[in-house]
Amino acid sequence: MSDLFRTLATAASLAALMAAPTVAQAADLPSNIRLVIGSKSTGGDTYQNSAIVAEALSEKLGINIKVDAVGESEAFKAIERDRRGTTMMIFHDQSYLGNLYGIRGYEDIFSTYKIGPTVAINPGNAFAVPKNSPYQTMDDIFAAAANGERIRVAIQPGGVSEIGFSAMKNAAEIRNPGSEKNIVAVNTGSQADKNQLLFDGQADVINASVQANEQFTQLPADDQKAMRFVWLTSSEETLEQAPEQGMGDTTREDLLSFASPQVSVTLDGEKDFTFDKEFFFLFNKDIDPEIVEALDTALGEVYADGEIQKKQTQSFFIPDFRPSGEALAHLQEKNDEYAEVIKAITE
Predict the structure, then answer these.
(1) What is the pTM of this model?
(2) Cβ of 319: how many Cβ atoms within 10 Å?
(3) Handedness of CA 335, 301, 240, 255 (dihedral sign)
(4) Cα torsion angle, 225, 229, 234, 240, sign
(5) Listed residue (77, 64, 52, 27) closest to 291, CA to CA
(6) pLDDT single digits (tens) 154-192
(7) Are the beta carbons of 39 and 47 closer than 8 angstroms?
(8) Distance (Å, rounded) from C-alpha 319 to C-alpha 68?
(9) Predicted confidence band of residue 103 (pLDDT cuts 50, 70, 90)
(10) CA pseudo-torsion sign 112, 49, 309, 55
(11) b vs e for 22-52, b when ≥16 Cβ sit within 10 Å of the residue's Cβ?
């Protein structure tokens, strides 16, 4: 063999050796994965975020991952049936909040399923009022409740809508005991349903999102659909990671003005309540640990490459990768903290 052929053969062997870890990870994962999500919408944040993650993993490992928007009930059933790892799930905090609120169909995810890695935060969870509302701030809302005024808040029960509502009631009780009774839920469904209640004067405050509602905050005050944000639940630390240009015509600086510490919804009289809407994987409880490890490793490499973060921030998500073990501890801590908030307003 000539020196040239020996050099080429050595180079090929080194290249194969360097590629081996990724090939091994791909071998540990099924070649075709059905990624079910806890939403039936293909236009919402759960689908959008899951599609970004699925595309990045598919390119990294050379496997096929199909996002299937089946809704939370069917998604939970799908992973319960599949311990092989060919079906995985992505959802957000509603997966454990639904159980804390006693919503039918929501089990304790920490004992029923295997918790996988976190992938992103949607920092846009918000509450809004009509632009011409007498309640221009959260302080106005709490003061009105203390004065005996009934504040109707449109939410979707059992999830990220309701935990913010629960925090409002808890803060009202701490600030003026008894006033929490004047903050009442108007239970409804989608964001469009909540918006319509506000437009029709059937709600004073609605759970909103920066992505879906920012357009309405740019309308003149005399427009029936005009609204303004009064509170973003995300932490200051999370919002500071958002793009400087923010969303639409609302800059990051504008968004920070609606969040703690600029807007205080107290948790215990000293610390403000904050909530980051976080997306993460869930698996069958008996999934092969090597599959979970392989996914952790592959996602770690995807985030180390840096491209996925660009796509996430362009879509107004905050990159948020934690491998499965760290994710479990983190989400269990969130579950326990919000369980105390819910307990405080139900006792």
Answers:
(1) 0.86
(2) 17
(3) negative
(4) positive
(5) 27
(6) 999 988 999 999 999 999 999 999 999 999 999 998 889
(7) yes
(8) 22
(9) very high
(10) positive
(11) eeebbebbbeebbbbbbbeeeebbbbbbbbb
